[in-house]
Amino acid sequence: MQLAAIIRKELQLLSRDVHGLALLFVMPLVFILIMSMAMKDDFDRRSGVALDVLYTDEAGIEVTDAMLSDVADNDLFNLVEVGSVYPGGSLADAAAAVGADEYSFLLRILPGAFTSLDAKVAEITVAPGTSREVTQLFVASLRRAMAKQRILLMEKEIKEEIPEAEAYDFLEVSGAEDDELIDISYGFQANTVSEAPTSVQQNVPAWLVFSMFFVVVPLANTMINERQVGTLRRIRTIAVPGWKLILGKIVPYYFINQVQVVLMLMVGVWVVPLLGGDRLTLGDSFGGLALISSALSAAALGYAILIAVICRSTEQATTLGGAGNIILAALGGIMVPTHVMPEFMQSVTVVSPMSWGLQGFLDIFLRGGGVADVLPEVASLLLLGVIALAVALLAMRRQTV
Amino acid sequence: MTDDARGVDGGEPRALVAAEGVAYRYDGAESPSLHDINIRVAQGSCFGLLGPNGAGKTTLISLLTGLLRVQDGSIRIGDYTFPRDAAAIKRMSALVPQEYAFYPTLTARENLEFFAGLYGIPAAERSARMEECIAVCSLEQVLDKRSQSYSGGIKRRLNLAIGLLTSPRLLYLDEPTVGIDAQSRHFILAAIERLQERGMTIIYTSHYMEEVEQLCDDVAIIDDGRVVLQEPTSTLLQGGSQVYVTPSGAPEPALLERLARELPAQWDGARLILTPGGEHTVSSLLQRLEQHAIGIERMQMGGHRLEEIYLGVTRTDLRA
Questions:
Q1: A298 neighbors A385 (Cβ within 8 angstroms)
Q2: Of A60, A244, B13, B54, whose Cβ has the fewest other Cβ atoms within 10 Å?
Q3: Rounded percentage of chain A residues whose pLDDT exceeds 90
Q4: Would you state the pLDDT for residue B8?
């Protein structure tokens, strides 16, 4: 009965705290929408969506046409004919554009391509901003398309000479196009930055984590007001155990945190795409998601109660809690994504619990992680929450009401 | 019928609250805030606890209500003692703090519901208990308005109503009329008198001496952490034999010292208080004043007021 009364009262107080509600729900919503859209192009480039490749086919034969068609089948490359951009097909203009990093490559199919087995087929000019890895990928893609056309040419010649060979599909026998011969599996490695998130994958969990820590403001304000106006003094003259008073704070704000998680994920899944952004993919582990959001809530609530206990005024709590959150966010890869940070700064992010929470979400959304994969982050967050709460309780016992 | 059943204890009214040799020192404080406090509060009485700011009243109430742990001495409330029976003591008493100790963004009804839940009042009784408190404190008109919109008087009434939710045997009222208009004050004092008539024991602190005179059966004055006076109010206010002389000009300190040595005379900062008796008749005392060239602007015979006694025992110097 006592616990229910405290929980109900906390929810009533929060429901009338317009600023607190705005901080918990409107602020992350606005941040998610603005930042997901504002950073979309930058993230798209980093996440390797369709690199533009200028090309010109000076051979102009059926084989080179088929080869280019195979290269274009690769979603990573968007082939743009030089003539469609530069009237007259000026190679000098095309080279200049690649030199200025407007395109990743200039591909020139040479006039003598495929006229003999040793005839040069192509020349590639690589833009200065194109990485070595991407270059190797493009070259491999081109080689594969070229090899396929060579096999087809050889098949045609052999079948003309040897009619018995008609029954054989040389391409199938070569295995050049048979992806089933290779199994690919993606290894999971927590906290890696090798897999860069999309804008929505970064921003939804980042600002969600940020807003979950902002329970510090309404919670600390309520606790400090209770202390300042004598309500806590009155409550402590009533036979109500201290653990009920603390649990009565934790339970409603845990509930609020979980509502934040559900709402912000819904925004990522349904609202951001309506505005032209990518759809947030949630991964496959509901259990992992529940675990990481619960642990985050534990850390945020421990931190909030500690701030409420050590601050003497609501102004102090708002300043310390708010500024603390911003510093934790800046350090934790919330404001600046970890994968764009220099290596030194990436190693610094581990000091921020917001980073632990964000990495936990990214493990699930981005890296296919499950319950076992987020356990390190969950343990760290729970430990922080317990330590913060213990320190707060010790400090509270020393305070005179 | 036993003394217990009659509510008397060896001829004395039975004490509901008995503090013996209570002392308390805050962590890091140079000296104790309370020294050897001994008070007895009779069951069903109203006990006035007076003292200047910082005298130790709040510390004593914090000890009596279990907010602070007793370091020295003992406190018995009813049949219970701290710390063993702290929960039982808390269940039988309630504190109405000086501050508006409720939630301003909640309505009076919501505040009452919250505290009723916290006090553990069963749901079946809650509605009736709330209705009674609402009626005693006349809150019907504002019940569903947020309490931050109330006047000071209504806030005081809500503060009191919350304290009455459990119909406690022992009620601590900490300056319940501070900062409100005469009408609200009159209403609250009348409500407290009705509670007394119902047998509730009240420990009352206030800086308004006339309220204490009106309400309290017994008075204790605390200063510098010590009980400097504890008497039944009726004894204190008995028409005394003193003569109050307001001189036409303030006498020199040396003269006041001499008068205090030679005569039954005390200076309270504004008046000389003469206590006739034996060889010192009223006329002889007034003659001696004349001999010392002390002109008399005004003279008042007998009739103590509590404020005079209070200032007499706590002195008139300002406190930090």
A1: yes
A2: A60
A3: 50
A4: 47
| Chain A residues within 8 A of B94 when measuring between CB atoms | 237-238
Domain span at residue A286 reads: 2-43+196-398
Chain B residues whose beta carbon lies within 8 Å of the beta carbon of residue A16: 105-106, 146
Which band of pLDDT confidence, cut at 50, 70 and 90, is reported for residue A7? very high
Task: Test B117 with A5 for CB contact under 8 angstroms.
Answer: yes
Q: Does A190 fall in a domain?
A: no
Provide the 8-state DSSP code for B146. B
Beta pairing partners, B94? B171
Angle at A88 between CA A85 and CA A89, to 5 degrees: 60
Q: How far apart are CA A253 and CA A237, in angstroms?
A: 25
Q: Would you state the structure tokens that stand for residue B160, as one six-digit string?
A: 């009191």
Residue A141 belongs to a domain with what CATH number? 3.40.190
Based on the domain organization, do A156 and A269 belong to the same domain?
A: no
A329 located within any domain: yes
- Does residue A186 form part of some domain? no
Instruction: Please answer yes or no on whether B119 and A238 come within 8 Å at the CB atom.
Output: yes
A258 shares its domain with A134: no
Same domain for A17 and A85, yes or no, is no
Q: Give the ipTM of the model, two decimals please.
A: 0.78
Of B91, B103, B117, the CB nearest to A231: B103
- Give the nearest partner residue to A239 out of B91, B101, B117, using CB atoms: B91
Chain A partners of B99 at a C-beta cutoff of 8 Å?
229-231, 233
Asked if A232 and A150 sit in the same domain, the reply is no
In a domain, A187, yes or no: no
A237 and A374 together in one domain: yes
Distance from CA of B283 to the nearest CA of A (A): 55
The DSSP output letter for B220 is E
Chain A nearest C-alpha distance from B82 (Å): 13
Q: Which of B270, B234, B233, B232 is nearest to B251 (CA)?
A: B270
Residues of A in contact with B162 (CB under 8 A): 234
Contact assignment for B114 to A5 by CB distance below 8 Å: yes
Answer yes or no: do A31 and A90 share one domain.
no
Interface test with chain B among A8, A235, A238, by most B beta carbons within 10 Å: A238
Q: Are both A158 and A240 inside the same structural domain?
A: no
- What is the 3-class SS of A31-77, one letter each residue? HHHHHHHHCHHHHHHHCCCCEEEEEEECCCCHHHHHHHHHHHHCCCE
Count of pairs with CB atoms under 8 A, one residue in A, one in B: 82
Judgement on whether residues A235 and A359 belong to the same structural domain of the protein: yes
The residue of chain B with its CA nearest to that of A240 is B118
- Residues B113-158 pLDDT 10s: 999 999 999 999 999 999 999 999 999 999 999 999 999 999 999 9
Task: Quote the pLDDT of residue B7.
Answer: 46
Domains and CATH numbers, chain B: 3-230 (3.40.50.300), 243-303 (no CATH)
Asked if B101's CB is within 8 angstroms of A231's CB, the reply is: yes
* Number of compact structural domains in chain A: 2
Cβ-defined contact of B118 to A400 (cutoff 8 Å): no
